[in-house]
Design a protein that fits this description.
Elements lengths: L3 H10 L3 E3 L6 H4 L13 E4 L3 H13 L3 E5 L12 E5 L5 E5 L4 E5 L4 H8 L16 H6 L8 H4 L6 E7 L5 E4 L5 H5 L8 E8 L5 E10 L3 H12 L6 E9 L14 E9 L3 H12 L6 E2 L2 E4 L4 H4 L8 E8 L4 H11 L9 E6 L21 E8 L5 H15 L3 E2 L15 H8 L1 H14 L14
Parallel strand pairs: 2-4, 3-4
Antiparallel strand pairs: 1-2, 5-6, 6-9, 7-8, 7-9, 10-12, 10-13, 10-14, 11-12, 11-16, 15-17, 15-18, 16-17
Helix pairs in contact: 8-11, 13-14
Bound molecules: flavin-adenine dinucleotide.
Protein backbone atom coordinates (compact mmCIF):
# COMPACT_ATOMS: atom_id res chain seq x y z
CA UNK A 1 0.00 0.00 0.00
CA UNK A 2 1.06 3.58 -0.56
CA UNK A 3 1.14 5.76 2.54
CA UNK A 4 0.11 9.41 2.68
CA UNK A 5 3.76 10.34 3.39
CA UNK A 6 4.91 8.46 0.27
CA UNK A 7 2.40 10.35 -1.81
CA UNK A 8 3.55 13.69 -0.42
CA UNK A 9 7.11 12.78 -1.40
CA UNK A 10 6.02 11.67 -4.86
CA UNK A 11 4.00 14.84 -5.41
CA UNK A 12 7.11 16.87 -4.66
CA UNK A 13 8.93 15.12 -7.51
CA UNK A 14 6.41 15.29 -10.33
CA UNK A 15 4.70 18.21 -12.00
CA UNK A 16 1.71 16.15 -13.18
CA UNK A 17 -1.11 14.95 -10.95
CA UNK A 18 -0.63 12.20 -8.35
CA UNK A 19 -4.00 10.67 -7.51
CA UNK A 20 -5.13 8.17 -4.92
CA UNK A 21 -8.34 6.12 -5.22
CA UNK A 22 -11.34 8.31 -4.42
CA UNK A 23 -9.62 11.58 -5.28
CA UNK A 24 -11.19 13.78 -7.95
CA UNK A 25 -9.72 12.93 -11.35
CA UNK A 26 -8.55 9.44 -10.31
CA UNK A 27 -11.28 7.57 -12.16
CA UNK A 28 -10.80 9.61 -15.32
CA UNK A 29 -7.13 8.67 -15.42
CA UNK A 30 -7.80 5.02 -14.51
CA UNK A 31 -10.49 4.57 -17.18
CA UNK A 32 -10.43 1.65 -19.59
CA UNK A 33 -12.13 1.34 -22.95
CA UNK A 34 -13.18 -2.19 -22.07
CA UNK A 35 -15.53 -1.69 -19.11
CA UNK A 36 -15.10 -5.35 -18.09
CA UNK A 37 -11.45 -4.77 -17.17
CA UNK A 38 -11.41 -1.84 -14.72
CA UNK A 39 -8.15 -0.60 -13.26
CA UNK A 40 -7.74 -0.24 -9.52
CA UNK A 41 -4.13 0.93 -9.03
CA UNK A 42 -2.43 1.81 -5.76
CA UNK A 43 -1.77 5.31 -7.10
CA UNK A 44 -2.00 7.10 -10.43
CA UNK A 45 0.67 9.39 -11.86
CA UNK A 46 -0.69 11.49 -14.70
CA UNK A 47 2.73 12.33 -16.12
CA UNK A 48 3.29 15.66 -17.78
CA UNK A 49 6.89 15.01 -18.87
CA UNK A 50 9.39 12.15 -19.30
CA UNK A 51 10.90 13.27 -15.98
CA UNK A 52 7.55 12.60 -14.28
CA UNK A 53 7.61 9.11 -15.77
CA UNK A 54 11.12 8.60 -14.43
CA UNK A 55 10.05 9.73 -10.95
CA UNK A 56 7.00 7.45 -11.03
CA UNK A 57 9.06 4.41 -12.08
CA UNK A 58 11.68 5.10 -9.37
CA UNK A 59 8.90 5.52 -6.82
CA UNK A 60 7.46 2.14 -7.83
CA UNK A 61 10.90 0.52 -7.53
CA UNK A 62 11.51 2.04 -4.09
CA UNK A 63 8.13 0.81 -2.85
CA UNK A 64 8.23 -2.66 -4.46
CA UNK A 65 5.25 -1.80 -6.66
CA UNK A 66 4.63 -2.75 -10.27
CA UNK A 67 4.13 -0.22 -13.05
CA UNK A 68 1.10 -0.26 -15.32
CA UNK A 69 0.47 2.03 -18.30
CA UNK A 70 -2.89 2.98 -19.73
CA UNK A 71 -3.00 4.27 -23.29
CA UNK A 72 -6.24 3.78 -25.20
CA UNK A 73 -7.26 1.32 -22.47
CA UNK A 74 -8.25 -1.56 -24.76
CA UNK A 75 -6.15 -4.38 -23.27
CA UNK A 76 -5.63 -4.24 -19.52
CA UNK A 77 -5.42 -7.87 -18.39
CA UNK A 78 -4.71 -6.93 -14.77
CA UNK A 79 -6.38 -4.41 -12.42
CA UNK A 80 -2.88 -3.21 -11.42
CA UNK A 81 -3.86 -3.14 -7.74
CA UNK A 82 -0.26 -3.35 -6.56
CA UNK A 83 1.05 -0.96 -9.17
CA UNK A 84 1.62 2.67 -9.97
CA UNK A 85 -0.55 3.43 -12.97
CA UNK A 86 1.18 5.87 -15.31
CA UNK A 87 -0.97 7.76 -17.77
CA UNK A 88 0.56 10.05 -20.37
CA UNK A 89 -2.38 11.93 -21.89
CA UNK A 90 -1.09 15.21 -20.46
CA UNK A 91 1.98 14.74 -22.67
CA UNK A 92 0.07 14.00 -25.87
CA UNK A 93 1.31 15.66 -29.04
CA UNK A 94 1.56 14.75 -32.72
CA UNK A 95 4.02 16.54 -35.01
CA UNK A 96 4.20 15.77 -38.72
CA UNK A 97 7.31 16.49 -40.79
CA UNK A 98 6.15 16.30 -44.42
CA UNK A 99 9.68 16.60 -45.87
CA UNK A 100 10.88 13.43 -44.15
CA UNK A 101 7.42 11.77 -44.13
CA UNK A 102 7.77 11.31 -40.38
CA UNK A 103 5.37 11.54 -37.46
CA UNK A 104 6.60 12.12 -33.93
CA UNK A 105 4.17 11.46 -31.12
CA UNK A 106 4.67 12.06 -27.43
CA UNK A 107 2.48 10.58 -24.68
CA UNK A 108 -0.27 8.20 -25.74
CA UNK A 109 -2.37 9.86 -28.46
CA UNK A 110 -5.02 7.75 -30.20
CA UNK A 111 -4.85 6.99 -33.92
CA UNK A 112 -7.56 9.55 -34.67
CA UNK A 113 -5.18 12.25 -33.34
CA UNK A 114 -2.58 11.18 -35.90
CA UNK A 115 -5.20 10.95 -38.65
CA UNK A 116 -6.35 14.47 -37.82
CA UNK A 117 -2.75 15.74 -37.86
CA UNK A 118 -1.97 14.09 -41.22
CA UNK A 119 -5.28 15.06 -42.81
CA UNK A 120 -4.59 17.33 -45.77
CA UNK A 121 -0.87 16.49 -45.81
CA UNK A 122 -1.24 13.68 -48.34
CA UNK A 123 0.41 11.33 -45.85
CA UNK A 124 -0.99 8.38 -43.93
CA UNK A 125 0.07 6.22 -40.95
CA UNK A 126 -0.11 2.41 -40.99
CA UNK A 127 -2.87 2.45 -38.37
CA UNK A 128 -5.50 -0.07 -37.34
CA UNK A 129 -9.24 -0.26 -37.85
CA UNK A 130 -10.23 1.62 -34.68
CA UNK A 131 -9.27 5.30 -34.30
CA UNK A 132 -9.77 5.00 -30.52
CA UNK A 133 -6.79 2.64 -30.16
CA UNK A 134 -3.63 4.10 -28.62
CA UNK A 135 -0.73 4.66 -31.03
CA UNK A 136 1.86 3.24 -28.62
CA UNK A 137 -0.14 0.17 -27.52
CA UNK A 138 -0.70 -0.69 -31.19
CA UNK A 139 2.89 -0.18 -32.34
CA UNK A 140 4.38 -2.13 -29.41
CA UNK A 141 2.30 -5.14 -30.48
CA UNK A 142 3.22 -4.88 -34.17
CA UNK A 143 0.01 -3.28 -35.37
CA UNK A 144 -1.90 -4.72 -38.34
CA UNK A 145 -3.54 -2.17 -40.61
CA UNK A 146 -6.61 -3.50 -42.42
CA UNK A 147 -5.95 -0.99 -45.23
CA UNK A 148 -2.17 -0.53 -45.57
CA UNK A 149 -0.94 -3.77 -43.97
CA UNK A 150 -0.94 -5.92 -47.10
CA UNK A 151 0.96 -3.28 -49.05
CA UNK A 152 3.19 -1.83 -46.31
CA UNK A 153 3.55 -4.49 -43.59
CA UNK A 154 3.11 -4.06 -39.85
CA UNK A 155 2.89 -0.64 -38.25
CA UNK A 156 5.99 -1.41 -36.18
CA UNK A 157 8.00 -2.06 -39.38
CA UNK A 158 7.99 1.71 -39.83
CA UNK A 159 9.01 2.79 -36.33
CA UNK A 160 12.37 4.57 -36.43
CA UNK A 161 12.83 5.82 -32.85
CA UNK A 162 11.37 5.07 -29.43
CA UNK A 163 12.01 7.03 -26.25
CA UNK A 164 11.23 5.18 -23.06
CA UNK A 165 11.87 4.90 -19.34
CA UNK A 166 13.19 1.52 -18.26
CA UNK A 167 12.87 -0.12 -14.83
CA UNK A 168 16.02 1.62 -13.53
CA UNK A 169 14.33 4.97 -14.13
CA UNK A 170 16.67 5.87 -17.01
CA UNK A 171 15.44 7.51 -20.19
CA UNK A 172 16.52 5.45 -23.21
CA UNK A 173 16.59 6.47 -26.85
CA UNK A 174 16.06 3.35 -28.91
CA UNK A 175 16.88 3.30 -32.62
CA UNK A 176 17.80 0.46 -34.97
CA UNK A 177 21.26 -0.06 -33.41
CA UNK A 178 19.92 -0.56 -29.86
CA UNK A 179 19.31 -4.08 -28.54
CA UNK A 180 15.86 -3.01 -27.31
CA UNK A 181 14.79 -2.21 -30.87
CA UNK A 182 14.17 -5.90 -31.63
CA UNK A 183 12.17 -6.51 -28.46
CA UNK A 184 10.10 -3.34 -28.32
CA UNK A 185 8.45 -4.09 -31.64
CA UNK A 186 6.26 -6.93 -30.36
CA UNK A 187 6.83 -7.18 -26.61
CA UNK A 188 4.01 -4.73 -25.78
CA UNK A 189 4.43 -3.03 -22.38
CA UNK A 190 6.95 -5.50 -20.92
CA UNK A 191 10.10 -3.38 -21.06
CA UNK A 192 9.27 0.11 -19.92
CA UNK A 193 7.14 3.19 -20.37
CA UNK A 194 7.30 4.66 -23.85
CA UNK A 195 7.20 8.46 -23.84
CA UNK A 196 7.70 9.19 -27.58
CA UNK A 197 7.74 7.35 -30.91
CA UNK A 198 8.75 8.36 -34.42
CA UNK A 199 7.49 6.50 -37.46
CA UNK A 200 7.30 6.81 -41.22
CA UNK A 201 4.16 7.96 -43.06
CA UNK A 202 3.16 6.99 -46.60
CA UNK A 203 1.83 9.09 -49.48
CA UNK A 204 -1.87 8.17 -49.29
CA UNK A 205 -4.60 10.79 -49.01
CA UNK A 206 -7.65 9.00 -50.39
CA UNK A 207 -8.69 5.39 -50.67
CA UNK A 208 -11.59 3.54 -52.27
CA UNK A 209 -13.12 1.85 -49.28
CA UNK A 210 -16.11 1.05 -47.10
CA UNK A 211 -18.43 -1.87 -46.46
CA UNK A 212 -21.18 -3.94 -48.04
CA UNK A 213 -23.82 -5.03 -45.52
CA UNK A 214 -25.62 -8.12 -46.80
CA UNK A 215 -28.41 -10.09 -45.10
CA UNK A 216 -26.94 -12.54 -42.56
CA UNK A 217 -29.35 -15.25 -43.72
CA UNK A 218 -27.23 -15.52 -46.89
CA UNK A 219 -24.03 -16.31 -44.96
CA UNK A 220 -23.57 -19.85 -46.33
CA UNK A 221 -23.59 -18.54 -49.87
CA UNK A 222 -21.51 -15.41 -49.22
CA UNK A 223 -18.65 -16.81 -47.14
CA UNK A 224 -17.15 -19.19 -49.75
CA UNK A 225 -17.57 -16.53 -52.45
CA UNK A 226 -15.76 -14.01 -50.24
CA UNK A 227 -12.88 -16.41 -49.56
CA UNK A 228 -12.42 -17.30 -53.26
CA UNK A 229 -12.50 -13.62 -54.20
CA UNK A 230 -10.22 -12.46 -51.34
CA UNK A 231 -7.51 -14.84 -52.53
CA UNK A 232 -7.39 -13.10 -55.93
CA UNK A 233 -6.88 -9.54 -54.63
CA UNK A 234 -3.67 -7.58 -55.25
CA UNK A 235 -1.70 -6.26 -52.27
CA UNK A 236 -3.14 -2.77 -52.69
CA UNK A 237 -6.57 -4.21 -51.87
CA UNK A 238 -7.62 -5.52 -48.46
CA UNK A 239 -10.73 -7.16 -47.12
CA UNK A 240 -12.31 -8.70 -44.08
CA UNK A 241 -15.74 -10.13 -43.45
CA UNK A 242 -17.69 -9.87 -40.21
CA UNK A 243 -20.81 -11.76 -39.18
CA UNK A 244 -22.55 -9.18 -37.04
CA UNK A 245 -25.55 -9.00 -34.77
CA UNK A 246 -25.93 -5.25 -34.60
CA UNK A 247 -27.58 -3.45 -31.67
CA UNK A 248 -30.90 -1.65 -32.16
CA UNK A 249 -29.23 1.74 -31.82
CA UNK A 250 -30.72 4.89 -33.36
CA UNK A 251 -27.29 6.11 -34.52
CA UNK A 252 -27.12 3.19 -36.98
CA UNK A 253 -28.84 3.62 -40.37
CA UNK A 254 -32.39 2.09 -40.13
CA UNK A 255 -31.70 -1.05 -42.23
CA UNK A 256 -28.87 -1.97 -39.84
CA UNK A 257 -30.62 -1.31 -36.51
CA UNK A 258 -30.86 -4.65 -34.73
CA UNK A 259 -29.98 -6.45 -37.97
CA UNK A 260 -28.10 -9.72 -38.53
CA UNK A 261 -25.64 -8.96 -41.33
CA UNK A 262 -22.61 -10.12 -43.22
CA UNK A 263 -20.35 -7.06 -43.37
CA UNK A 264 -17.78 -7.26 -46.19
CA UNK A 265 -15.10 -4.63 -45.65
CA UNK A 266 -13.01 -3.51 -48.59
CA UNK A 267 -10.30 -0.97 -49.31
CA UNK A 268 -8.15 -0.25 -52.31
CA UNK A 269 -5.24 2.16 -52.35
CA UNK A 270 -5.39 3.41 -55.90
CA UNK A 271 -7.73 4.47 -58.68
CA UNK A 272 -11.45 4.36 -57.77
CA UNK A 273 -12.40 2.73 -61.09
CA UNK A 274 -9.94 -0.08 -60.51
CA UNK A 275 -11.18 -0.44 -56.95
CA UNK A 276 -14.78 -0.71 -58.13
CA UNK A 277 -13.76 -3.33 -60.72
CA UNK A 278 -12.03 -5.35 -58.01
CA UNK A 279 -15.06 -5.17 -55.74
CA UNK A 280 -17.56 -6.02 -58.54
CA UNK A 281 -17.78 -9.78 -57.75
CA UNK A 282 -18.93 -8.95 -54.21
CA UNK A 283 -21.41 -6.33 -55.41
CA UNK A 284 -22.70 -8.93 -57.88
CA UNK A 285 -23.70 -11.14 -54.95
CA UNK A 286 -26.89 -9.09 -54.81
CA UNK A 287 -28.36 -5.96 -53.35
CA UNK A 288 -26.72 -4.81 -50.14
CA UNK A 289 -28.77 -3.47 -47.23
CA UNK A 290 -26.22 -0.64 -47.31
CA UNK A 291 -23.20 -0.10 -49.56
CA UNK A 292 -20.79 2.47 -48.14
CA UNK A 293 -17.88 1.76 -50.49
CA UNK A 294 -16.59 4.82 -52.32
CA UNK A 295 -13.78 7.34 -52.42
CA UNK A 296 -12.99 8.45 -48.89
CA UNK A 297 -10.25 10.45 -47.18
CA UNK A 298 -7.75 8.21 -45.40
CA UNK A 299 -8.46 10.21 -42.24
CA UNK A 300 -11.94 8.60 -42.19
CA UNK A 301 -10.49 5.08 -42.33
CA UNK A 302 -12.28 4.13 -39.08
CA UNK A 303 -15.59 4.20 -40.97
CA UNK A 304 -14.64 1.02 -42.87
CA UNK A 305 -14.94 -1.27 -39.85
CA UNK A 306 -17.09 1.08 -37.73
CA UNK A 307 -15.77 -0.40 -34.49
CA UNK A 308 -17.48 0.79 -31.28
CA UNK A 309 -16.52 4.43 -30.72
CA UNK A 310 -17.36 4.60 -27.02
CA UNK A 311 -16.24 2.40 -24.11
CA UNK A 312 -18.27 -0.81 -23.77
CA UNK A 313 -17.98 -3.97 -21.69
CA UNK A 314 -16.78 -6.77 -23.98
CA UNK A 315 -15.04 -10.15 -24.12
CA UNK A 316 -12.91 -10.95 -27.14
CA UNK A 317 -10.63 -13.67 -28.51
CA UNK A 318 -8.66 -14.19 -31.67
CA UNK A 319 -6.70 -16.89 -33.46
CA UNK A 320 -4.54 -17.09 -36.55
CA UNK A 321 -5.73 -19.45 -39.27
CA UNK A 322 -3.45 -21.23 -41.73
CA UNK A 323 -6.23 -21.75 -44.27
CA UNK A 324 -9.94 -21.40 -44.86
CA UNK A 325 -11.10 -24.73 -46.22
CA UNK A 326 -14.76 -25.45 -46.99
CA UNK A 327 -14.82 -27.34 -43.70
CA UNK A 328 -13.48 -24.30 -41.84
CA UNK A 329 -16.21 -22.16 -43.33
CA UNK A 330 -18.90 -24.70 -42.51
CA UNK A 331 -17.66 -24.78 -38.93
CA UNK A 332 -17.88 -21.01 -38.77
CA UNK A 333 -21.35 -21.01 -40.27
CA UNK A 334 -22.41 -23.53 -37.65
CA UNK A 335 -20.98 -21.34 -34.90
CA UNK A 336 -22.16 -17.92 -36.04
CA UNK A 337 -24.68 -18.44 -38.82
CA UNK A 338 -28.44 -17.86 -38.88
CA UNK A 339 -29.25 -21.22 -37.27
CA UNK A 340 -26.77 -20.81 -34.42
CA UNK A 341 -27.38 -19.49 -30.92
CA UNK A 342 -24.35 -17.21 -31.26
CA UNK A 343 -24.38 -14.47 -28.58
CA UNK A 344 -21.41 -12.61 -30.13
CA UNK A 345 -21.76 -9.14 -31.62
CA UNK A 346 -19.12 -9.71 -34.28
CA UNK A 347 -17.23 -12.68 -35.69
CA UNK A 348 -14.61 -11.52 -38.15
CA UNK A 349 -12.16 -12.98 -40.64
CA UNK A 350 -9.33 -10.78 -41.90
CA UNK A 351 -7.43 -11.80 -45.02
CA UNK A 352 -3.74 -11.18 -44.31
CA UNK A 353 -0.78 -11.88 -46.61
CA UNK A 354 1.16 -9.56 -48.90
CA UNK A 355 3.68 -7.37 -47.08
CA UNK A 356 2.41 -8.80 -43.74
CA UNK A 357 4.36 -11.94 -44.68
CA UNK A 358 7.62 -10.18 -45.49
CA UNK A 359 10.38 -9.76 -42.89
CA UNK A 360 11.04 -6.24 -41.61
CA UNK A 361 14.28 -4.39 -42.33
CA UNK A 362 15.44 -5.11 -38.73
CA UNK A 363 14.45 -8.27 -36.85
CA UNK A 364 11.51 -7.86 -34.48
CA UNK A 365 9.35 -9.89 -32.10
CA UNK A 366 6.22 -9.88 -34.29
CA UNK A 367 5.41 -13.54 -34.79
CA UNK A 368 2.38 -13.56 -37.07
CA UNK A 369 4.07 -13.34 -40.48
CA UNK A 370 2.85 -16.07 -42.79
CA UNK A 371 -0.62 -16.43 -41.26
CA UNK A 372 -3.22 -16.48 -44.01
CA UNK A 373 -6.19 -15.24 -41.97
CA UNK A 374 -7.07 -13.90 -38.58
CA UNK A 375 -10.30 -14.85 -36.79
CA UNK A 376 -11.40 -12.26 -34.22
CA UNK A 377 -14.68 -12.18 -32.31
CA UNK A 378 -16.22 -10.22 -29.49
CA UNK A 379 -19.40 -10.16 -27.47
CA UNK A 380 -20.79 -7.19 -25.60
CA UNK A 381 -22.24 -7.56 -22.11
CA UNK A 382 -21.78 -6.78 -18.43
CA UNK A 383 -20.27 -9.02 -15.75
CA UNK A 384 -23.42 -11.18 -15.68
CA UNK A 385 -23.07 -11.95 -19.41
CA UNK A 386 -19.30 -12.41 -19.43
CA UNK A 387 -19.16 -16.12 -18.43
CA UNK A 388 -21.54 -17.06 -21.25
CA UNK A 389 -19.65 -14.93 -23.78
CA UNK A 390 -16.30 -16.37 -22.69
CA UNK A 391 -17.64 -19.91 -22.92
CA UNK A 392 -18.94 -19.31 -26.45
CA UNK A 393 -15.64 -17.73 -27.55
CA UNK A 394 -13.78 -20.73 -26.12
CA UNK A 395 -16.11 -23.09 -27.97
CA UNK A 396 -15.44 -21.23 -31.25
CA UNK A 397 -11.69 -21.49 -30.73
CA UNK A 398 -11.96 -25.14 -29.84
CA UNK A 399 -13.93 -25.95 -33.01
CA UNK A 400 -11.58 -23.90 -35.21
CA UNK A 401 -8.43 -25.45 -33.74
CA UNK A 402 -7.85 -27.89 -36.63
CA UNK A 403 -7.05 -24.92 -38.89
CA UNK A 404 -5.43 -22.69 -36.30
CA UNK A 405 -1.79 -21.78 -35.90
CA UNK A 406 -0.32 -21.31 -32.44
CA UNK A 407 1.03 -17.94 -33.52
CA UNK A 408 -1.35 -14.97 -33.31
CA UNK A 409 -1.43 -11.26 -33.95
CA UNK A 410 -0.05 -9.87 -30.70
CA UNK A 411 -2.15 -6.73 -30.66
CA UNK A 412 -5.31 -8.84 -30.65
CA UNK A 413 -4.41 -10.90 -27.57
CA UNK A 414 -7.27 -10.30 -25.18
CA UNK A 415 -7.11 -9.89 -21.39
CA UNK A 416 -8.43 -13.47 -21.21
CA UNK A 417 -5.41 -15.11 -22.86
CA UNK A 418 -1.63 -15.16 -22.94
CA UNK A 419 -1.58 -15.46 -19.15
CA UNK A 420 0.94 -18.27 -18.89
CA UNK A 421 4.53 -18.66 -19.99
CA UNK A 422 3.71 -21.69 -22.15
CA UNK A 423 0.85 -19.97 -23.91
CA UNK A 424 2.85 -16.82 -24.63
CA UNK A 425 5.89 -18.81 -25.72
CA UNK A 426 3.75 -20.67 -28.26
CA UNK A 427 2.23 -17.42 -29.51
CA UNK A 428 5.64 -15.77 -30.05
CA UNK A 429 7.35 -19.00 -31.05
CA UNK A 430 9.96 -20.40 -28.61
CA UNK A 431 12.95 -18.81 -30.36
CA UNK A 432 11.59 -15.27 -30.24
CA UNK A 433 10.28 -15.83 -26.71
CA UNK A 434 13.68 -16.94 -25.41
CA UNK A 435 15.29 -13.88 -26.98
CA UNK A 436 12.64 -11.63 -25.41
CA UNK A 437 13.24 -13.28 -22.07
CA UNK A 438 16.94 -12.41 -22.16
CA UNK A 439 16.12 -8.76 -22.86
CA UNK A 440 13.38 -8.74 -20.20
CA UNK A 441 15.70 -10.17 -17.55
CA UNK A 442 18.37 -7.60 -18.38
CA UNK A 443 16.12 -4.52 -18.46
CA UNK A 444 13.40 -5.47 -15.96
CA UNK A 445 14.87 -8.10 -13.60
CA UNK A 446 12.24 -7.41 -10.90
CA UNK A 447 9.40 -7.69 -13.43
CA UNK A 448 8.02 -4.27 -12.61
CA UNK A 449 6.22 -4.12 -15.95
CA UNK A 450 3.94 -7.08 -15.34
CA UNK A 451 0.43 -5.67 -15.82
CA UNK A 452 0.27 -6.92 -19.40
CA UNK A 453 0.84 -10.11 -21.38
CA UNK A 454 3.80 -10.79 -19.17
CA UNK A 455 7.02 -12.32 -20.47
CA UNK A 456 7.97 -14.76 -17.70
CA UNK A 457 10.86 -17.16 -17.19
C1 LIG B 1 -12.25 -2.32 -31.61
C2 LIG B 1 -10.80 -2.69 -31.74
C3 LIG B 1 -10.20 -2.72 -33.00
C4 LIG B 1 -8.86 -3.04 -33.14
N1 LIG B 1 -8.29 -3.06 -34.39
C5 LIG B 1 -6.98 -3.37 -34.51
C6 LIG B 1 -6.35 -3.41 -35.78
O1 LIG B 1 -6.95 -3.11 -36.80
N2 LIG B 1 -5.06 -3.79 -35.84
C7 LIG B 1 -4.34 -4.10 -34.72
O2 LIG B 1 -3.16 -4.43 -34.83
N3 LIG B 1 -4.90 -4.05 -33.50
C8 LIG B 1 -6.20 -3.71 -33.38
N4 LIG B 1 -6.77 -3.69 -32.15
C9 LIG B 1 -5.98 -4.08 -30.99
C10 LIG B 1 -5.20 -2.89 -30.43
O3 LIG B 1 -4.21 -2.47 -31.34
C11 LIG B 1 -4.52 -3.32 -29.14
O4 LIG B 1 -5.52 -3.69 -28.26
C12 LIG B 1 -3.64 -2.22 -28.55
O5 LIG B 1 -2.65 -2.81 -27.73
C13 LIG B 1 -4.45 -1.25 -27.74
O6 LIG B 1 -3.63 -0.23 -27.26
P1 LIG B 1 -4.28 0.86 -26.33
O7 LIG B 1 -3.24 1.86 -26.00
O8 LIG B 1 -5.54 1.35 -26.97
O9 LIG B 1 -4.71 0.04 -25.05
P2 LIG B 1 -4.04 -0.04 -23.60
O10 LIG B 1 -4.84 -1.06 -22.87
O11 LIG B 1 -3.93 1.29 -22.98
O12 LIG B 1 -2.58 -0.57 -23.89
C14 LIG B 1 -2.38 -1.89 -24.38
C15 LIG B 1 -1.03 -2.40 -23.88
O13 LIG B 1 -0.01 -1.54 -24.34
C16 LIG B 1 0.72 -1.01 -23.24
N5 LIG B 1 1.02 0.40 -23.47
C17 LIG B 1 0.21 1.35 -23.94
N6 LIG B 1 0.85 2.52 -23.98
C18 LIG B 1 2.10 2.31 -23.49
C19 LIG B 1 3.23 3.12 -23.28
N7 LIG B 1 3.22 4.42 -23.51
N8 LIG B 1 4.34 2.54 -22.79
C20 LIG B 1 4.40 1.23 -22.51
N9 LIG B 1 3.35 0.41 -22.68
C21 LIG B 1 2.21 0.94 -23.19
C22 LIG B 1 -0.22 -1.15 -22.05
O14 LIG B 1 0.47 -1.22 -20.85
C23 LIG B 1 -0.96 -2.40 -22.36
O15 LIG B 1 -0.18 -3.50 -21.93
C24 LIG B 1 -8.11 -3.35 -31.99
C25 LIG B 1 -8.70 -3.33 -30.73
C26 LIG B 1 -10.03 -2.99 -30.59
C27 LIG B 1 -10.65 -2.97 -29.23
Amino acid sequence: MVSAADVVALRAQVSGQVLLPGEPGHDIEAFTFNLLTPLNPAVVVAASSPQDVQAAVRFAADNALGVAVRGGGHVQPDPASSAVLITLDAMNSVVIEPETRTARITGTPRWQDVLDATSGSGLAPVCGSAPTVGVVGYLLGGGQSPVLGRSHGYGSDHVTRIEMVTADGELQVVTAEHELFFALRGSKGNLGVVTAVEFTLFPVSEIYGGGLYLPGERLAEILPAWRDWAETLPEAASTSVAIQRLPPLPDLPPPLQGAFVVHIRFSYVGDAGQGAALLAPMRDLGPALIDTVGVMPYAAVGAIHSDPALPVPYCDRSIGLRELSDQTLNTLIGLAGPDSDCPLASVELRALGGALDRPPAQADAVSSRGLAYQWFAFGVGGPEDAPGLRAYLARCIDELTPWADERRLLTFLSPDEGGTRDELSAIYGPEVYERLLIVKQKYDPQNMFRSNHNILA
